[in-house]
């Protein structure tokens, strides 16, 4: 069809431009902005990619789409050949000009065309949230970490609703979305968002009294006020706040007097249009031993959830943190981390911190091999922190054609007791709950019963070759379900 001297760049550029119109900006930026046309030879187009992992992902996700577009434009088929050519982070002038121009064009387009708070933005900035000219304050809020800002929060499909709600609250506290409850598993950004609200309000409204406290600290302070007979000071402190931010309200379980005090604090603030924001590791409906009237107060306002970040969001988070660290980490290493750590932001940060510490302490460049070696424990970690025992019970019960209540009941028939023990075993293997906590979720059983059940399943797995594959299959299904939830 062609000889080696013909340049088909014009068809390549047009094909990519047309594809760009059919996908999101974030998807384009992640998978297409770093593809570079190199040359054509006979019926083949040679395209450079920054890593072998990147090549494999583009081939599996988009090769058919690219080939179809080229065929539509040219009237004949091209074969796409990918060549791995890592970008040189130390000498950016050596990198292809087209890549930088595309990124520049993309940045300008985002600033001018994409609506504020759009979830398609990979790395939002503080300007996106409408806080471009905040009044200066002499110091940071004493109870809030200054790193917890909207500027540092990466928006993805998993958290865009919660992030936009937090921004709306920060811009107009007490006027809407009151109260607001942000819930989700550990390490997904609940504390980041609630403190971002506090930091933004602190800068935007200098006259407002902002109180941030964990539920545990609130409880301890309340107990101390009873012991020291300073209840009036305690009540005045919390009931005269303009913005009350309370982290981890699941610690209210089994704390009757604290619930009573929070109920009255809630009413006082709500009646005076004062903003309240809470975080929890689960929906309010799943908090045990919570009074109905307090539960109804939490459910009165806006409840938003945070889910595990998608691959694209994990990638954006790592890129932003790597840029801030000043350490150079190759694309393939970043992709390895994003592909193997799927649980939450906290695990991503922990892995990156270890990798950066290694690079600084031993003065070695990071390579994919070093990444695999240093992060092998992260990559092999079987625990997924967003998994709840409720999900395990539902999945195991469904597998054995039982109900979750059967697993929690006192019934000891073989048809129920062994599935119950399997659910206990999986709970111990894939969550960080203690045996005591697991026992409470299985009808109030004590920790020795849980340990006995786990031991029995482990022993049977050694003698029954069919049991281990079945348990592993259940664990995979539970992890997949928890990622969707």
What can you see in these coordinates?
Helix content is 54%, strand content 9%. It is α/β, with parallel strands linked by helices and 485 residues long. It folds into four domains: 77 residues, GMP Synthetase, Chain A, domain 3, CATH 3.30.300.180; 156 residues, P-loop containing nucleotide triphosphate hydrolases (Rossmann fold); 70 residues, Helicase, Ruva Protein, domain 3; 95 residues, Chromosomal Replication Initiator Protein Dnaa, Chain: A. Strands 5-6-7-4-8 form a five-stranded parallel sheet, with helices on both faces. The chain has a three-stranded mixed sheet with strand order 1-2-3, with helices on one face. β6, α9 and β7 form a beta-alpha-beta unit. α7 packs antiparallel against α8. About 11% of the residues have low confidence. It holds the Pfam family Bac_DnaA. It comes from Spirochaeta lutea.
